[in-house]
Every structure is written in structure tokens, then in C-alpha cells.
Design a protein that fits this description.
By secondary structure, the chain is α+β, with helices and mostly antiparallel strands. The longest helix has 20 residues.
Length: 190
């Protein structure tokens, strides 16, 4: 009986150490720009991606799926929310795919009309969807405020061109494959 209690206590201590080892503070996010890449920022909030966490989930052209850890820094509430973000890309809607599509549909158009069509196509469907769930909520010092809150899971949400999640998803694709999926928005920082 005492042995079981010792094992349980040791397991609890081990798991507690593991949980605090992965905690993220504002200081860590700000002082490790190679690891935590700020992709979008306003006065109210910032989005950063753990560049080392980007990995390929699926690679069956024309579909690609990438996953990473994303951090939402909410300055007003002094909170950092860690998400597991999964983005699916339809390469037929990428810059290269849209160029092929437009040229096939209307091969002899002016450059101006081409770029108008490109913008219309990208805004109508940028070819990206995302799913996310919150892993942890931290205060700015890196202390866990909430562990696995289940009320904020999203599945197959459409991404809109020019949105903050568009910038994050575009960055992930560039980091993994060396080129943006679509031309970056003017708000993109990375």
C-alpha cells in the first residue's frame, strides 16, 4: 500500500515537472524570435508560431496538412493561449494553382485584369481551412491558468484571405515548403 502511494506521488511529481517544462511566458515568447515567430500583431494581441513545432500531417497533392503550436498573446487579459493548429491546404487554390486556373480560363487577358481575377479568386476561396484546440492557457509569467479547456475546439473553419489566421497559415506553409501558399497580406510580419 505504501509502495503504491510512493509510485503515485512520484508520478504526480514527474507529470508536474513535465507540465511546467512546457510552460511559455511572455518573456520567453519575446526573447526567442527564432523559435517563436510573431506572425501577426496589433496593440490588443499577437499571434506567434513555434517554428520548430511545424510538421507535416498529410502530403497527398493537391492536399497538404500542416500542424503546429500557435500562441495567442492577449495583452488586455495578460494571457497566453496555446493552440494546436492544423491547417489543410488545397494547392489548386495556391498562387501557382490560381495562375494556372486563370490562364486556362482566359489565356489572353491584360496584366491588370489578370491580377483583378487573381484577387477575386483568392478572396472568394483562399484554399485553406483550419482546425484548432486550446492546449493551455498561461498568465504572462508562464503559470498554467487552465489545462485543456474543451469549450474552444474548432474544426474545418474556412480561412479568409488577409485575416490573422491567414498570415499564420501562410507562414507555416512557407516555413515548411520554402514559399508562401498565397501572396502574403500586408499585415504579415513573417
Amino acid at each position: 500500500n505504501k509502495m503504491i502511494k510512493k509510485i503515485i506521488v512520484a508520478l504526480f511529481v514527474f507529470l508536474s515537472m513535465q507540465m511546467t517544462a512546457f510552460a511559455v511566458s511572455l518573456n520567453e515568447l519575446d526573447n526567442n524570435p527564432q523559435k517563436y515567430v510573431k506572425v501577426f500583431e496589433t496593440r490588443s494581441y499577437a499571434l506567434a508560431v513555434d517554428a520548430a513545432s511545424i510538421n507535416v500531417v498529410r502530403e497527398t497533392p493537391p492536399y497538404y496538412t500542416l500542424q503546429s503550436n500557435e500562441y495567442l498573446v492577449d495583452y488586455a487579459s495578460a494571457t497566453i493561449v496555446q493552440y494546436q493548429l492544423t491547417v489543410t491546404y488545397d494547392y489548386q487554390r495556391s498562387t501557382q494553382g490560381l495562375i494556372k486556373l486563370i490562364n486556362a480560363q482566359t489565356p489572353k487577358i491584360t496584366r491588370e485584369i489578370f491580377w483583378e481575377r487573381y484577387a477575386e479568386e483568392g478572396v472568394a476561396n483562399c484554399g485553406m481551412t483550419y482546425s484548432s484546440n486550446i492546449l493551455y492557457v498561461y498568465d504572462f509569467n508562464g503559470r498554467v491558468k487552465h489545462d485543456h479547456p474543451s469549450y474552444v475546439e474548432k474544426y474545418n473553419q474556412r480561412i479568409w484571405a488577409g485575416s490573422d489566421i491567414f498570415d499564420v497559415s501562410n507562414y507555416m506553409f512557407k516555413k515548411q515548403y520554402g514559399d508562401y501558399f498565397l501572396r502574403p497580406s500586408t499585415t504579415a510580419k513573417a
